[in-house]
Each structure stands twice: as C-alpha cells, then as structure tokens.
Amino acid sequence: MQLGQSAVAAGQDYVQKNLGGLIPVSVMKYHFNVSNSYVVKKIRLLLFPWRHKWSRRVHRTENGQPEWQPPRDDVNSPDLYIPLMALVTYILLAALYSGLQARFHPEILGITASKALAVVLLDFIFVKLGCYFLNIQGGMSNQVLDVLAYDGYKFVGVIMTLIAGLLNVGRTLYSLVFLYSFFATAFFLLRSLRHMVLPDASATAAPVNPAQRSRRITFLFLVAVTQIVYMGILVRV
C-alpha cells in the first residue's frame, strides 16, 4: 500500500504541474481520496457488479452547495487510484507474460504503456464526443476525470484475464474469464454512467425528451459494448 501511495503522490504531483491550470487541484484530490476498505469494495464491485445499489451519495458543503461524496465515503464514486494502480499492474504483468515466453525486451514496457494509454484515450474521446453531440451537460473538470476513471476500470478485468493466461488454465477457461470480465465491465459502466448520461429530472435544468432519451440509451449501450474491443486489444500482450 505504501508503494501505491508513493505512486499516487507522484501522479498527483505530475498532474498538478501539467494540468493544474485546466483542472482544479481540489477536483484531482477528490479522485484520489480513497481508503483501503474502499479499494477492496470497489474491486469487488468491478468483478461482481450484478446486484448492487448504484445511487451516489450527496452531501452539503459549508456554503450549502450539493456535492458528491468522495470515493472514501461512497463506493459508487469514481476514483483515479484504482485505474492508476491497475494500469501499472497491467504493464508489469504484460512484461512478465513476455518474459515467460522468452521474448522480453526493455521496450516492451514502453510499448505496453503506449498501447494502454492509446486505448484509454480512444475510449475517452468516444465518450466525450458522444456527450458533446448528445448535449450531455456536466461540470467540465469533474466530468473529464470521471470519464478517465471509468475508462481505467477496464484494466481490472484485463488483469484477471492475463492472470488466467499466466496460470495456463486452457483456452476455453481463458476465453470464459475474458468474456466474464467483459460482461462485468460493460454492466458496471452501463450502470455507473447512467447518472451522467441519463440524469434525474431534478438534477438537470433541461428535461430529456423521449427522442433524446432513446439516443442516449443507445449511446450508453455502445459505450458498454465497445469495451470488448478495447479489452481484446489490451489482453494481447
């Protein structure tokens, strides 16, 4: 955990220096405000999302403004700690996988990291373009980091698939693990992104008409279904 905290601190410092002018530091710190119990519960939710209450908790700030509870206090809140740690773990597992197949070379780390970041960026652009064209409103800084967090959760399922491959469980079981990880990730995103794509009437100034709702539901399913493409790319190490 200490190693993870050091990595997060370094990541926060890097993001603060490079994105501090675009995204408030308080917003970035919010996404790293996690606890050990939150991490365990969140990973369990990512792997077994089938029966869960998805409503996010709201609290009032000192000036009376409503605000989402931080991840530490609400397992439904998106965080950047797990995606960051999962990304690092994915890169190391890919290197181990290559080493066991006697094809490791130092460039593997850079290639794997570049591929992973490219997949996250592609997913991010797809979601943001969908939000733009469907006129899905949201606080820019909050929404950017929320989407990045949701994009990064797919690495948990990818890691499970890679571990199955390392254990030599056989092609059939490996495929089943991959399919289960995909369905779990897709279902998680389907339910988690709903509050952003289809907000409650009380949470938005402009009500969503039936035609808009239909298009947004289609978009939501597209985001979920395309995860099989992204995860399929990532498990090829």
From TrEMBL:
The keyword Signal does not apply. It is found in: Endoplasmic reticulum membrane; Golgi apparatus membrane. Belongs to the YIF1 family. Pfam families: YIF1. GO terms for cellular component: COPII-coated ER to Golgi transport vesicle; endoplasmic reticulum membrane; endoplasmic reticulum-Golgi intermediate compartment; Golgi membrane. InterPro entries: Yif1_fam. This is Protein YIF1. Keywords: Endoplasmic reticulum, Golgi apparatus, Membrane, Protein transport, Transmembrane, Transmembrane helix, Transport. The chain crosses the membrane at residues 80-100, 112-135, 147-167, 173-190, 217-235. GO terms for biological process: endoplasmic reticulum to Golgi vesicle-mediated transport; protein transport. The keyword Transmembrane helix applies. It comes from the Eukaryota. It is a multi-pass membrane protein. The lineage of its organism: Eukaryota, Fungi, Dikarya, Basidiomycota, Agaricomycotina. It comes from Ceriporiopsis subvermispora (strain B) (White-rot fungus). Has a role in transport between endoplasmic reticulum and Golgi.
